[in-house]
Amino acid sequence: MTEPPTVLPPEDLRPASDLTARTLEQLGRVLLGQSDLHRMVLVGILSRGHILLEGVPGVGKTALVKALGAVLNLAFGRIQFTPDLMPADIVGTHILQQTDAGQREMVFRPGPVFTNLLLADEINRASPKTQSALLEAMQERAVTLLGKTRPLPDPFFVLASQNPIELEGTYPLPEAQLDRFLLKLQVPGSEADVLEAIISTRRRGEPPAVTWSMSADELASVFGVMDRIYLPRAVSRYVSRLVAATHAGAAEATPRVAAYVSYGASPRAAIGIAEAARAEALLAGRPTVGFEDVRAVAPAVMNHRIILNYKARFDGIDTFAVIDELLEALDEAELDLPRDVQVGAETDE
Amino acid sequence: MTDPASPARAVSGFRLRLAGLLLLRYVLGLVSAWCFAWGLAALVLCAVWGVPSRPLLWSLVGLAAAVAAAVVLAIRRTPSRAAARAALDRWNRAGGLVMAGAEVALGDWAAAGPSLTEPTLAWRSRRLVALAAAAAVFLAFSFAVPRRYVGDAEARPLDTDAEAAALREQIETLRQEEILREKEARELEQALEKAAREASAEDPAKTWEALDHLEETLTDAADDAAEQACQQTETLAKAESLARALAADADALDPASTTAAMKKLADLVEKAAKECDMLGEGTDRDAEACRAGRLGARKMLALASRLGRSKEAIRSRLGRLLEARLLDGEALEMAERLGRCSAQGLAEFLAETGTGGAPIEGIIDEWLEAEVGYGAGGITRGRGDAPLVRAPPASPDGTRFQEQALPPATAADLKQSRLLGVTAGAPTVETAGEPTAAGTLGDAVRGGGSAHSHLLLPKHKPAVRRYFERARPGARPAPEPANGESP
Q1: Interface probe with A: pick from B26, B120, B123, most Cβ of A within 10 Å
Q2: DSSP string computed for B36-72
Q3: How far apart are CA B467 and CA B353, in angstroms?
Q4: Closest-CA residue of chain A to B79
Q5: How many CB atoms lie under 10 A from the CB of residue A225?
């Protein structure tokens, strides 16, 4: 007789939750006033996903990634993408080298992708060919050169950044490649209080060094806990309905979806939401995923996976507006009640 | 969640409340729809087939069907336990623990969570309640509205109750007054019932024609009866007046006139007895006694009273016919006029005319006719346009003019005279050179006989009468004129 499955006990969850809380605390020390961004970045890391950061220069994208690498005690690499950057500059190349025996042979020289945490800065400035090389490595978590596949270090995360301005001479990432990123996060500017704190407390704006870092074992244990976060069927059903509703022809599609969406989110989006929701539940110190976790991560997971039509551009509608309407309209519990009957709403009569 | 059974209980309670709310909602909706549908059906059934509203009340069993359908719909629409549990999880911000509790063991988390509260339920019922109220009002209206406003004009019965009741009352009146025989009344009643029974708005003219025919039949019978009553009234009035006149002053007549008047009375009484069966027994005996001149004054008065009562009975009958609207007021007025005969006037007339020995049978008839129709005539009896009833003409026998020699001048003037007229009056001697009178009688010779060419004014009638009385043999001498001239 087998034991019935149980949710993660509190004593197993609490250490992992504490670790993540300390991680967020360290990130908050390094980069002021971006707690939501830190939380979502950590969600992406815990979900083992890649993250695309979009923001204007100077908002702290690079500093965030550096701090994250330091806190998580991961190897950190950075590639500044330029139009003349070649795939070999990323994945590495074979060079002819003389051995100690005097023979010459092709020796593989790993590129910067062979690291745990890679910052692909201004990824949209590289040519599609170079972008594809990185995106293939992101997907396969391995590099194949001359018929030989070399796995990338585990864990492997790519945090790419792109500048939404100065688009001349850039190569926007195609949708298929955008889909490889688990999250696309907007890096907002800082408010006046935050800027004042930066100026007054930091010489030349240099962030302080991290005071605590997570060991490899601790990180592994956190990933282990992540895998044990329970996803109830009602929540997985909600995630599925949410992703399905992003398609214009879906039964639960909202008016904005029907009007402005050309292509809805892929199944990978549903997988990404489920994983990200698990990470969100872990950060909240819960062993199960709730609807609120899904609602918290869904915009970041789906905003780059929904392709709008030209009409949306003319009307000034972006994907966040479409997703917000979806989250508002879709009943998580799927009670399927008449419109005039509402649960948990204020009565007007 | 201190109690492991708490989520299950909360889920059950929540579903129960939700099911109740949905049941109420569906009951209201379906009952409203039923009310509208059945109200409309009631109107259509009434309008097309003329179905009355009372049998349609059996359709209230449809309410039970609507409630049953609402129960089925509510049960089908009630969320599953999993959905209810998800709603509870969301409401209590349990982060998936409540949902996971139904799938996996929660372990220590079961005791760590908060106790569950059921979410509030909100129902925007204002529109549905208003709809239900409107449906109820419509249903009530559809059953309360008078059928005649809804039904087909051709199919609904014609309302002839008032007319039939009036005709029924008239038939009954005619039967009670014995104007209609029992068989005739029954046949008329049957015809009336048939017309009322077959009355329909599909062919109103047929019904109205039948009722009009019945009314005309009754009116004709009443008219005939009224005409007969007028005739009887006239005869009775004449007989009564004559009887009272003879009883009042029988000694004023000479024997011949008294005998003639009694015979005339006997004729009138017999005629009245023949026309009217209300005089009772003894009338024939009185008539015989009267004809023989043996009816005394007391019996005469009794006979007159009996005749008067019969006249009043006829008048009462006519009054009842008038009340039943079988007659108009003109008929009753005619009867009253025919029954109005002045015994005193007749007595005076007889006193004036029945003393000269002349036959007065015709005079009595003429007077009675004039009295019954217009009055006796003359300035003291009846209207001015009444015919003048004259006494028998005076006999010229034994009458001669006084011889008087005409003056020569006057005789010589005859050749040059012109005839103005012939008069029965005595010629007067006109002295020569005397001027003629002026005015309306300017052409007449003073004291001459040209007055006949002018209208005899009523105020001159006594003078004319006195003139002719003077010439009647055996009459009392006329008083001498004050100036000594012959009249």
Answers
A1: B123
A2: HHHHHHHHHHHHHH---HHHHGGGGHHHHHHHHHHHH
A3: 15
A4: A335
A5: 22
- What residue of B is the nearest CA neighbor of A346? B122
Instruction: Please indicate whether, in this complex, the C-beta atoms of A234 and B82 are within 8 angstroms of each other.
Output: yes
Q: Is B431 helix (H, G, I), strand (E, B) or coil?
A: coil
Domains of chain A in start order, with CATH, are 8-227 (3.40.50.300), 229-349 (1.10.8.80)
How far is the alpha carbon of A110 from chain B, nearest alpha carbon, in Å?
44
* Per-residue pLDDT of chain B in tens (487 residues, 90 and over written 9): 445 457 888 888 889 999 999 999 999 999 999 888 888 888 888 777 767 767 777 777 888 888 999 999 999 989 888 899 899 888 888 888 888 888 888 888 887 766 788 888 888 888 989 999 999 899 888 888 776 666 555 555 677 788 888 888 888 888 888 888 888 888 888 888 888 777 766 677 888 888 888 888 888 888 888 888 888 888 888 888 888 888 877 676 777 777 888 888 888 888 888 877 777 777 778 888 888 877 777 888 888 888 888 888 888 888 888 888 888 878 778 777 777 777 777 777 777 766 555 566 677 777 776 666 555 445 555 555 665 665 555 666 667 777 777 666 655 566 666 777 777 777 666 655 544 444 455 455 555 555 445 667 888 888 888 888 775 555 555 454 444 444 3
Is residue B106 a contact partner of residue B97, using CB atoms and an 8 Å limit? yes
**Which residues, at least 6 apart from B198, have a Cβ–Cβ distance to it below 8 Å?**
B206, B207
Contact B86 A333 (CB under 8 A): yes
Residue A291: list chain B partners with CB under 8 A: 86, 89-90, 96
Up-side HSE of residue A76: CA atoms within 13 Å toward CB?
15
- Please tell me if residue A342 touches chain B, with a CB cutoff of 8 Å: yes
Taking CB atoms and an 8 Å cutoff, what residues of chain B touch A235?
A: 96, 99
Q: Which two tokens stand for residue B244?
A: 């009272």
